[in-house]
Give the backbone structure.
Amino acid sequence: MGVLEGKVVLLSGTGRGIGRVAARRFAAEGAIVAGGDIDAAAAAETLRLIQADGSVPGTAGPLDVTDEDSVRAWVEGCVARFGRVDVLYNNAGAVRFADIAGQPFADWRFTLAAELDWCSWSPGRPGRSSPPPAG
Ligand SMILES: NC(=O)c1ccc[n+]([C@@H]2O[C@H](COP(=O)([O-])OP(=O)(O)OC[C@H]3O[C@@H](n4cnc5c(N)ncnc54)[C@H](O)[C@@H]3O)[C@@H](O)[C@H]2O)c1
């Protein structure tokens, strides 16, 4: 029995990279992963990998963490399906790295928004108000 047996993990950006690895690891420990990604096909592939690992696949809801309505629907979809959220992992992000001397200000702002606003504000707001407390 895994150390996270039956826990519900809401995890953004499950399409690749750290999000995919984390989703498989959480699932291997018995958690139900309610994932999501702007790349729906990639998130679906992660579900397939979880199943191939022998773990229980959760969900891969459509998700754009820059869109408040999308985030709200994602969080509420998780609660409706699994009853609660035990773990919120704000993983999704995006960067436009460049030499700061030549970087357009819009790219600087994009990175700050993607790495700070999306992670902290967007998933957190509906997450605080919508799901009932874990237990
Ligand atoms: N890789 C590193 O060394 C490292 C180090 C420190 C922090 N981080 C942070 O960890 C997080 C994940 O890193 P990674 O290397 O796996 O990144 P990645 O770019 O490989 O994966 C990010 C995932 O988020 C998804 N995503 C992007 N925009 C989205 C949106 N608007 N809505 C929903 N999903 C969206 C992408 O499709 C992708 O699947 C990022 O926030 C990154 O900045 C990464």
In short: Residues 8-129 form a domain with the Rossmann fold fold (CATH 3.40.50.720). Residues 27 and 55 are 6 Å apart (CA to CA).
